[in-house]
Design goal:
29% of the residues lie in helices and 21% in strands. It is of the alpha+beta class. The radius of gyration is 25 Å and the shape is globular.
């Protein structure tokens, strides 16, 4: 190697190495940005909530059979099985803090329950028949009270349920964690209790 080449290497080597490091770091940042999950809640230009088609791939929280929050008879002539799901990103945050982060989407999927079918001789199982999906979304910038409810009945974008609907007051009065019914979620309740975010009076 000539003296000139040695001088150039000594002179520009650190600069080239630094530039290469920045380029690699830039690629890493870009890859990280591209790998960030999209927000679970997406809206139309008019503010309607777009149906979350992949909700069945989310985190399962609980099921309930014929649950009601009223002392009055439901009047149903069939069984109802409710399944509750939450988007994976929000669940990961909840496990760390015991709190639902902004952007959380909780979905209650009501399904028809049945007793007889195939080899079933007792109990209740879920059928393919799904009623309207009930969606609970947390977004303090978009919604006055932080949370909003939507019902999807046909897979189409849904309008927000008006804020004076009974579901809002019920959740505010009885939700054990941030207006949500974590008291009925057996995997989420211990997390909230440990984090000190669980209201045992609810």
């Amino acid at each position: 190697m000539s003296n000139n080449n040695q001088e150039n290497t000594m002179k520009y080597g650190p600069i080239l190495i630094g530039a290469a490091t920045l380029i690699v770091a830039g690629f890493g940042a870009a890859a990280y940005t591209n790998s960030l999950p999209e927000a679970a809640a997406r809206y139309t230009a008019s503010g309607d909530l777009i149906f979350p088609k992949d909700y069945r791939e989310w985190v399962f929280l609980t099921s309930g059979v014929n649950m009601t929050y009223s002392e009055q008879a439901s009047g149903m002539n069939h069984d109802m099985v409710d399944n509750v799901f939450v988007d994976p990103v929000s669940w990961q945050a909840f496990k760390k803090t015991g709190k639902w982060p902004e952007g959380t989407m909780l979905i209650k999927e009501p399904r028809m329950g049945a007793h007889e079918g195939s080899i079933s001789k007792g109990g209740t199982f879920q059928t393919e028949e799904v009623f309207g999906l009930e969606v609970h979304v947390k977004d303090s910038k978009r919604f006055k009270d932080g949370w909003a409810f939507f019902v999807h009945s046909d897979g189409q974008p849904a309008q927000m349920i008006p804020g004076d609907a009974e579901c809002y007051s019920c959740h505010k009065a009885s939700g054990a964690v941030d207006t949500t019914f974590v008291q009925f979620y057996p995997t989420a309740k211990p997390v909230a209790v440990k984090a000190g975010t669980f209201d045992a009076a609810k």
